[in-house]
Amino acid sequence: MRGETAYLNDLLAEDYISVNGSGAVRTKADIIEMSRKYAANNQGPMPDLPPSPVSIIGDAAIVQHDNQSERSVDVFYYRDGRWYAWYSQHTRK
User: Fold this and answer.
1) From 25, 40, 51, 74, which residue has the greatest number of CB atoms within 10 Å?
2) Across the 93 residues of the chain, what is the mean pLDDT of every consecutive 10-residue run?
3) Do residues 34 and 26 touch, judged by C-beta distance below 8 A?
4) Are 72 and 91 in contact (CB under 8 A)?
5) Residue 10 is inside which H or E element, if any?
6) CATH: 3.40.630.30, 3.30.200.20, 3.40.50.10150, 3.10.450.50. Which one for 5-42+53-92?
């Protein structure tokens, strides 16, 4: 949300995919560019986000988000001493 593209580049796996509530597929490069644009147009305070449940099973983690307009699930994997975001699925309520 702050346009921290270096952070996103390190966090998102090279084959990262995000599917939004309309079914549009976005790649790592798409998400990084969207973050940069969002940050340029939204300079106000960061929104308060509630904690999200996290399930860790071996080298995988699932994070579930639920807000007023959508639900989402993020899948992470642990490799070479760090976590990578691999997939996100967003569903409109």
Assistant:
1) 74
2) 81 97 95 87 72 93 90 96 97 91
3) yes
4) yes
5) helix 5-11
6) 3.10.450.50
